[in-house]
Amino acid sequence: MGTMPEKKSNSVKRVFTLLLAYIMFCGAGGVVATGFLLPAVFGANSVIKTVTPSLKAEGIDFSITKLPQASTLYAADGSKMASFYTQNRIVVPLSEVSDIMQKAMVASEDRRFFQHSGVDVQGVLRAFVQTYVKGGSTQGGSSLSQQYVKNMLLAQAESDDDPIAAYHATEDTIARKLREMLIAVQLEKEYSKAEILQGYLNIAQFGTRNLYGVESAARRYFNKSAKDLNIVEAATITPITQNPSKYDPSIEANQPETERQRNIVLDLMLQEGYITQQEHDDAVKTPIKDTLHITSVDQGCMTAGDAAFFCSYVVKQIENSPEFGATKEDRQKLLNSGGLEIHTTMDVNANNAAMNAARQAIPVDDPSQFEMMIAAIRPGTGEVLGFGINRTYDATDAAKDDFRRTAVNFAVDQIDGGGTGFSVGSTWKPINLVAWMREGHSITEVLPAGNTLNERNEVPDYHANVTWNISNSGARGTAESPLQGLVNSHNTTQVAMLKVIGLTPILNAAADMGYHSATIADKDKSLLEQKVLYNPPMVIGTGVSASPLTMANVYATIAANGVQCTPIAITKVIDSTGKDIPVPSANCHQAIDPEIAQTVAYAMNQGVVTPSGAAHTAQLANGRKTFAKTGTNENEYLVTAGFTPEVAAFAIAGNAQGYHKEYDKKAGTYKTTDGFTNRTINGVFHDTWFGYMLATPAWVNFMNTYLDSAQIPINNDYGNPSAKYMGGASSSSSSGATSGTSGGATDGATASASPSASATDSAAPSADATVTVDPSQAESSAATNEQQQQ
């Protein structure tokens, strides 16, 4: 069989034809009409005609500010929280790159860069001879301008999600080379040499792990800026662009070859007169290990430490907000490649205090496996200050089988990366008081005891055939005012109020104060449209599905003289060009009458200002006036909420992840438990746990620590009741504690043969309460809180 000489001859002919085109094009100096596109040139080989449509420079944007860049999240004090990127790049002007770094790149990659017009003819001829005449390794002969074009074409293809364009930008063909040459010459007509060098230094890949641009390289390998790179450092990172995976010096196995390549660059720099012989010799003698200062290039919320849960909340805010793009995909792309500066509301002191308080209350690895969650917000602004969760943030698969780790922020709504919410017990009761006053009633008006409730006949706007039996701490209720009902946290008084005003005013008050369901399914519905919430047990905090942040925000409305704001996590976003991007607004507005807010605050304060109050454990340090409410829902959640005029916070302990396992020695197996009965938590055993035992100390710990670290002065002027709503009664008409009880139908109760389901909710043994509901008549009124995987 022959060797097909005709095919070989055609191949040689093609090579020389293309070489002729190369030379003519170079000699024309970019005058395309007289050289590169001559019909005679292309007529020499019909195959070339097929590539002419791609030999265009139209539609290419060489603006370096539009390159994919890393976005960075910052806390309120300007400290860095985390970075996000598809390409880890920080674009800098050439003036921010050291002169020696510029010279190292020119000496190594294109020593005639400042003489040619985009294509180095000598380089082309050298590459041709080496590759096709001598039969050596393939040589590109590409100028820096051509390399810049190649990288930009690839970047644009990736940005457009165009795999075909990406293939053509990197295919190993002469057609690609011709296209690059054409565009390179056109490029040099529009841009200066400095601008082209600047572009290349910013777009080139400088290592593995998506490391792009000279600034990111300088920070990665030497923990400094590109403007501070010295001779050795510049020579070290310059050759990485030729083979990022092979010459990345952060990989120890690469270091011998990286040092050899560095020395080659030093030789070239000496040859071009950029460094002296002494500088060269000193640099060559320097071990590469002695020059490196490797820094982490990990990205995302996993790198944010104790700020990780706040970080994930910010990411969800960006993904869910139309200000950042028309679709979720657009917003994610902006975050990962838009080079954004994202300034958040996170107060480092507040977040640290919340994380520490949560872990001190229930350690991360506590055998009880209960979660402690804290959310804090600044009243009157909507600014979320921080979160506390006794868990380690982990978005990997390893978290699935480790209760100590999770990527779910149970302090926020489901759509923001949280769970489906919690029943909040007695911390709901201040909402009832607001509704009562909005209906024109005094909080000192005496009401008869409400020991039973037939919803069909006794609730003005609710007609389910359900009968409720209510008691307080095992005893029947007594006639008292709504003020006393809040101070003593009596369920019977809440029901008596319900009989008078109905459920709709309570729902409206809750919505106006910032309450909404935590579940995604309820996100776009009003409370009146949410049948699962529209039932009487919510007046004692049962059957609602609130996130800790939502309840903290409800209390912030009371703390801000009735001004309600939508929680926000972002204060400012700047894009890669320095322009501001609009951010979600807090929409602060007067939601309830300031006199009502002050009166509710007064009522809340009554149980904590005196040492005899049952909620005296919520009193903050140094005599600071404290407004707090504690509670226990069923046997499942222990809660405390409260505020000062400067910060509102909500703390809750419970089974958020939906599973707790304890080892049964007798059976030799693990058993799943849910409630707080007969539990040892953080080394302490109680047969019955109440909110004041666990949630209150965590809340107080957070509040005292944050107020002290933030150096917030004591302001005891808030909480002045209005005579209009006090009915002329003196402040001494109420006594006791705001700490108390609430209970209701068992969480997730369904119809069954059992005659009743009962629950207790208390902040102190003397204030314990039970509520009995017939589940065979009642519709399920509670939402379980299941872990939501991201």
From TrEMBL:
<dbReference type="GO" id="GO:0006508">
    <property type="term" value="P:proteolysis"/>
</dbReference>
<feature type="region of interest" description="Disordered">
    <location>
        <begin position="725"/>
        <end position="790"/>
    </location>
</feature>
<keyword id="KW-0808">Transferase</keyword>
<dbReference type="InterPro" id="IPR001460">
    <property type="entry name" value="PCN-bd_Tpept"/>
</dbReference>
<feature type="compositionally biased region" description="Low complexity">
    <location>
        <begin position="727"/>
        <end position="740"/>
    </location>
</feature>
<dbReference type="InterPro" id="IPR001264">
    <property type="entry name" value="Glyco_trans_51"/>
</dbReference>
<protein>
    <submittedName>
        <fullName>Penicillin-binding protein</fullName>
    </submittedName>
</protein>
<dbReference type="GO" id="GO:0030288">
    <property type="term" value="C:outer membrane-bounded periplasmic space"/>
</dbReference>
<dbReference type="GO" id="GO:0009002">
    <property type="term" value="F:serine-type D-Ala-D-Ala carboxypeptidase activity"/>
</dbReference>
<keyword id="KW-0573">Peptidoglycan synthesis</keyword>
<dbReference type="GO" id="GO:0008955">
    <property type="term" value="F:peptidoglycan glycosyltransferase activity"/>
</dbReference>
<keyword id="KW-0961">Cell wall biogenesis/degradation</keyword>
<keyword id="KW-0645">Protease</keyword>
<keyword id="KW-0328">Glycosyltransferase</keyword>
<dbReference type="Pfam" id="PF00905">
    <property type="entry name" value="Transpeptidase"/>
</dbReference>
<keyword id="KW-0378">Hydrolase</keyword>
<keyword id="KW-0511">Multifunctional enzyme</keyword>
<keyword id="KW-0133">Cell shape</keyword>
<dbReference type="InterPro" id="IPR050396">
    <property type="entry name" value="Glycosyltr_51/Transpeptidase"/>
</dbReference>
<dbReference type="GO" id="GO:0008658">
    <property type="term" value="F:penicillin binding"/>
</dbReference>
<feature type="domain" description="Penicillin-binding protein transpeptidase">
    <location>
        <begin position="373"/>
        <end position="635"/>
    </location>
</feature>
<comment type="similarity">
    <text>In the C-terminal section; belongs to the transpeptidase family.</text>
</comment>
<feature type="compositionally biased region" description="Low complexity">
    <location>
        <begin position="747"/>
        <end position="770"/>
    </location>
</feature>
<dbReference type="GO" id="GO:0071555">
    <property type="term" value="P:cell wall organization"/>
</dbReference>
<dbReference type="Pfam" id="PF00912">
    <property type="entry name" value="Transgly"/>
</dbReference>
<dbReference type="GO" id="GO:0008360">
    <property type="term" value="P:regulation of cell shape"/>
</dbReference>
<dbReference type="InterPro" id="IPR023346">
    <property type="entry name" value="Lysozyme-like_dom_sf"/>
</dbReference>
<keyword id="KW-0121">Carboxypeptidase</keyword>
<feature type="compositionally biased region" description="Polar residues">
    <location>
        <begin position="773"/>
        <end position="790"/>
    </location>
</feature>
<dbReference type="InterPro" id="IPR012338">
    <property type="entry name" value="Beta-lactam/transpept-like"/>
</dbReference>
<dbReference type="GO" id="GO:0009252">
    <property type="term" value="P:peptidoglycan biosynthetic process"/>
</dbReference>
<feature type="domain" description="Glycosyl transferase family 51">
    <location>
        <begin position="79"/>
        <end position="269"/>
    </location>
</feature>
<dbReference type="InterPro" id="IPR036950">
    <property type="entry name" value="PBP_transglycosylase"/>
</dbReference>
<comment type="similarity">
    <text>In the N-terminal section; belongs to the glycosyltransferase 51 family.</text>
</comment>
